[in-house]
Write a structure and sequence with these properties.
With about 260 residues, the chain is an alpha/beta fold. It is built from 9 helices and 10 strands.
Length: about 260
C-alpha cells in the first residue's frame, strides 16, 4: 500500500444516499468517516401532513391523557417537539412527568434528547414491530392505557397493530409526510456521481420505489444496502440484485452492512 493511501475501509467508494432532502446529514457523515464519497440524490422532501398538522396539535394539547408516546423516526420526534414548542409559544418543551416516551432506535432517541426529553424505552432492534413488542402489558383500564403514535402519513401498521394486540388503546396521528421532489426537466443530466457508483443506501421501501421509478433498475449500483427487512423485501420485489440488509436497523448498521459488502 502506498504511504499516502487512505486505510479506511470504504476509501474512495461512491455510495448513493437517497434520504429525504435535509435528512441525509447523519448517514453521509457516517459514510465519510469510513472514507466513502456520499452521492446525495434526494428523492423526497419532508412536509406537513394533509391536515396541516391539526391532529398532532390536538393530541399535543391533551398530551397528559396519554400513558405513552411512541415515536418511530427522528422526523416524527422533530414534528412532535415542534408542535409542543408551538403550543408553548416557543418556550422550552415542558414534557408531562407522567407521560412515558418510547423511541424506535438511537437516532430517534437522540432527536428527543436534544430537546431534553429522555426516552423510557428504546428496543434492542430498531423496528416498529420490535418497539411494540418491547412495551409492557396494557393496564386493565383503557383510559390508563392510551398511547399516542405520531407517524409518517404513509407509515405501515406494525406499531399500531402490535400495541393494540397487547391491549393498548392507540391514537395514531399523521405527524409529517414525505412528498416527491419535482422530477428533473426532460433531458436534464443525471445527478453527479450516480453513474458508476459502487453502492446505494436504501432507507425505506418508498425510497426503493422512487429510485427505480425515476432512474430505472439499470442505474441501481452493484450493491444495494437496505436498512431493514421491509426495505429489502421491496427491493427484491423490484427485481434488484446485490442486496444486503443491515443487521442493526440504524444508520450505523447500514454503514456496517455497506462496509462488509464492499470490502
Amino acid at each position: 500500500m502506498a504511504p499516502d493511501a487512505d486505510p479506511r475501509p470504504l476509501a474512495g467508494r461512491r455510495v448513493v444516499v437517497c434520504r429525504a432532502e435535509g435528512d441525509a446529514g447523519p448517514l453521509a457523515a457516517a459514510l465519510r468517516q469510513q472514507g466513502a464519497v456520499p452521492v446525495l440524490v434526494p428523492l423526497l422532501v419532508r412536509a406537513d401532513p394533509a391536515d396541516g398538522g391539526a391532529a398532532l396539535r390536538e393530541a399535543v394539547a391533551h398530551l397528559d391523557r396519554y400513558a405513552w408516546v411512541a415515536v418511530t423516526s427522528a422526523a416524527g420526534a422533530e414534528a412532535l417537539l415542534a408542535a409542543l414548542a408551538s403550543a408553548a409559544g416557543g418556550a422550552p418543551v415542558g414534557w408531562p412527568a407522567q407521560v412515558r416516551v418510547a423511541a424506535v432506535g438511537p437516532a430517534t432517541a437522540e432527536a428527543l434528547r436534544r430537546a431534553g426529553v429522555e426516552p423510557h424505552l428504546v428496543p434492542a432492534t430498531a423496528t416498529a414491530a420490535d418497539l411494540a413488542a418491547a412495551f409492557p402489558p396494557a393496564p386493565p383500564d383503557p383510559e390508563a392505557g392510551r398511547v399516542l403514535a405520531p407517524l409518517a402519513e404513509l407509515a405501515g401498521d406494525d406499531l399500531v397493530a402490535g400495541l393494540r394486540a397487547r391491549g393498548w388503546v392507540v391514537d395514531r396521528v399523521d405527524a409529517y409526510r414525505l412528498a416527491d421532489l419535482p422530477p428533473p426537466a426532460p433531458g436534464a443530466p443525471l445527478p453527479d456521481g450516480l453513474t458508476g457508483a459502487d453502492a446505494v443506501a436504501f432507507t425505506s421501501p418508498s425510497v426503493v420505489d422512487r429510485f427505480c421509478d425515476r432512474f430505472g433498475p439499470a442505474l441501481v449500483p452493484p450493491v444495494a444496502a437496505c436498512i431493514g427487512p421491509r426495505t429489502a423485501d421491496r427491493a427484491h420485489q423490484r427485481g434488484l440484485g446485490g442486496l444486503v440488509t443491515a443487521d442493526d436497523h440504524t444508520t450505523t448498521g447500514l454503514v456496517a452492512a455497506l462496509t462488509a459488502a464492499l470490502t
